[in-house]
Design a protein that fits this description.
By secondary structure, the chain is of the alpha+beta class. It contains seven helices and 25 strands. Bound molecules: zinc ion. The site of zinc ion has 5 residues, from loops.
Length: 425
């Protein structure tokens, strides 16, 4: 409105100026804008809805019902079977009409008459896009992606119970909680937090038309656990996103790829393999390393022993929790190493047992199992990016980035429950 008025004013001044110049052959000073801006706007602005001028049309909103398809919705709004057929053909290369799902929102743009004949239907499969089915003049189908705006946000909180509870108390998305816990997974055991531990985050929020549709990257994070402070700064050195501490070291600690000196890999992780003892197909959720009996088995990373005992199938085995995400398990040992029992802290590379064939095993081997977030994954395929520090070439840039991030994180007020916009922080 203001812009229109201003534009009108400029045009008015132009006309008036030219006229007066012609009359007096001399330019006059421009009048105060307020004097002209009161002129009424001659053309009312049209109401646009998905690109349609809808001032003289009706909008009918609905949600797709179970087993309802496009033609059913359209037939109810006086669209002929012929038009629907035409539309289905036009839709083919753009949007498969069979993908129209229950509970999704649609809007019909209808004539404002007693029949309420539909002119177009706008289907919204998600908040990131919508599909226009137009059938008034010519049948066409268009898929439109909404503009995603990245907004930097900051938040902070004090733990009373768990990180997830403290974050959801502030209406923060579970994805932010997960991403945050992932960053500090090697430093902090999020299952054993103390009341009073504190967090701060600078993150990207993906916005569509003023509404958050998801979390982008975490750019900087801070955690204070039991009085100890940790910072995490986002940097991509070309190997994908990574987080570094104030010294420029990766927050991730590398796990050893192999827990022993082995002769060969006798069986790989697979969803289905022929079991040599059971003589039937069965999933094998581990990697078998054939090795000489008595070969020392080492923990692939620092951690705490959670299980160390004999099992009918596993034989003598040890399970180690490395952090809130990763655990590893070592099966069929001839013997568990001395002092290895639940609760024992182990270092990376420490011997925890010796190769054998106890339990359901044939031949001396280690069955090595890798757990991520409670699920077994292929140890040889688990995606652990390298945990190298900030490279020499990136050092100077990193120092600048780090100072700025640490500064911003320090400025976030801790006890403020309200979410602050990153502006000025
Ligand atoms: Zn195995």
């Amino acid at each position: 409105m203001w812009k229109k008025a201003a534009a009108f004013f400029v045009i008015a001044i132009g006309f008036a100026g030219t006229y007066l110049y012609k009359v007096w052959q001399t330019p006059i000073p421009a009048p105060e804008p307020e004097q002209v801006a009161v002129e009424p706007d001659p053309v009312p602005e049209p109401t646009l809805f998905y690109g349609y001028v809808v001032d003289s049309l009706d909008l009918v909103e609905g949600k797709v019902k179970r087993n309802q398809n496009l033609s059913e919705i359209l037939l109810k709004h006086n669209v002929s079977g012929e038009t629907i057929h035409e539309l289905a053909i036009a839709a083919k290369p753009v949007y498969d009409v069979r993908r129209i799902l229950p509970r999704k929102k649609y809007t019909l743009i209808c004539e404002r008459d007693s029949l309420q004949t539909a002119r177009a239907l706008v289907y919204e499969p998600n908040r990131l896009e919508y599909v226009i089915f137009n059938f008034s003049d010519s049948a066409f189908v268009r898929r439109v992606e909404r503009k995603v705006e990245i907004v930097e946000k900051v938040t902070a909180g004090t733990i009373s119970n768990s990180l997830a509870v403290s974050m959801s108390d502030q209406d923060l998305s579970p994805q932010l909680t997960n991403d945050f816990a992932d960053i500090f997974a090697w430093e902090i055991d999020f299952f054993h937090l103390y009341p009073g531990d504190q967090f701060k985050v600078i993150y990207e929020d993906k916005m569509v038309e003023g509404q958050s549709v998801g979390i982008g990257r975490i750019l900087g994070a801070y955690f204070q656990h039991d009085g100890e402070e940790s910072y995490a700064i986002y940097l991509d050195q070309g190997n994908g996103p990574d987080y570094f501490d104030r010294e420029g070291n990766s927050l991730r600690k590398q796990l050893l790829k192999y827990p022993l000196k082995f002769n060969r890999i006798s069986s790989r992780y697979s969803g289905r393999r022929y079991h040599p003892v059971l003589k039937r197909y069965k999933a094998h959720r581990g990697t078998d390393f054939a090795a000489d009996r008595g070969t020392p088995i080492r923990s692939v990373g620092e951690g705490v022993v959670t299980e160390a005992r004999y099992g009918k199938y596993n034989g003598n085995y040890v399970k180690i929790k490395h952090n809130g995400i990763y655990s590893t398990q070592y099966l069929h040992m001839s013997k568990i190493a001395k002092g290895i029992r639940p609760g024992t802290k182990v270092k990376q590379g420490q011997t925890i047992g010796y190769v054998g064939s106890t339990g359901l095993a044939r031949g001396n081997h280690l069955c090595f199992r890798f757990w991520k977030n409670g699920y077994q994954v292929d140890a040889l395929n688990v995606n652990l990016p390298p945990s190298e520090p900030v490279t020499y070439e990136n050092r100077i840039d990193y120092e600048v980035l780090k100072d700025r991030m640490v500064n911003r994180l320090n400025k976030i007020p801790l006890d403020s429950k309200e979410k602050l916009l990153a502006k000025g922080v």
